[in-house]
Amino acid sequence: MNIHADVAAYNSDGELTLIVEVKNKLGTDSEWATKMRRNILAHGLLPNVRFFLLALPDRFYLWKDKSSTEIEKPTYEIDAKAFLKLYFEKVHIQPEKISGMGFEILINLWLNELLQKSSLLESFKQDKNNQWLIESGLLEVIKHGRIVSETIV
């Protein structure tokens, strides 16, 4: 079965390591995110992948090494406003006014810049907004990899 991904990240060996579901929705909580992930899994729309990120303009929800269809809370819940602020400013738009496609492009921009900067691990360690990337192991896994948007995995 072919599965559509808003964004997929492959490691340096070409293995699928991250699926990102991009939603243009504000004001969610981990309970909403947990149900969203469960629905995606129940419909067979998420392959077995090491990381799954549900990206919203104000919150990120990351599951690590969780492939069961059980209701599982995110491994990490991240306030995305701090590190996405720069990207919203670059495109001169407020999070509540961005279109779905516009937000997906913004997430692609963020991920591609993340890949380019991932070799600068020391600078990442000093920025508290990036701690979840290091602690989860996501930054290390996607380092030297590639990002693909609107793809079939």
Give an overview in words.
This protein has 153 residues and is an alpha+beta fold. The protein has one domain. 38% of the residues lie in helices and 24% in strands. A 6-stranded mixed β-sheet has the order 5-4-3-2-1-6, with helices on both faces. A hairpin with a 5-residue loop joins strand 1 and strand 2. It is globular. The model has no long low-confidence stretch (mean pLDDT 89).
Supply the number of structural domains: 1
Mean model confidence by pLDDT: 89
Supply Rg: 15 Å
Which parts are unreliable, with pLDDT below 50 for 5 consecutive residues or more?
none
- Give me the side-by-side strand order of the main sheet: 5-4-3-2-1-6
From N to C, what is the helix and strand string?
Answer: EEHEEEHHHHHE
Shape: globular
Main sheet makeup = 6 strands, mixed
Class from helix and strand fractions = alpha+beta
Report the helical percentage: 25-40%
* Total beta-strand segments: 6
Which strand-content bin applies to the residues?
A: 15-25%
Please supply descriptive tags for the structure shown above:
alpha+beta, about 150 residues, single chain, 6 helices, about 40% helix, six-stranded mixed beta sheet, about 25% strand, 6 strands
Give a short summary of the structure.
The protein has six helices and six strands. The protein has helices at 30-42, 81-90, 100-117, 121-126, 131-136, 138-142; strands at residues 4-10, 16-22, 51-55, 59-64, 76-79, 146-152.
List the topology elements.
Elements: E1 4-10, E2 16-22, H1 30-42, E3 51-55, E4 59-64, E5 76-79, H2 81-90, H3 100-117, H4 121-126, H5 131-136, H6 138-142, E6 146-152
Parallel strand pairs: 2-3
Antiparallel strand pairs: 1-2, 1-6, 3-4, 4-5
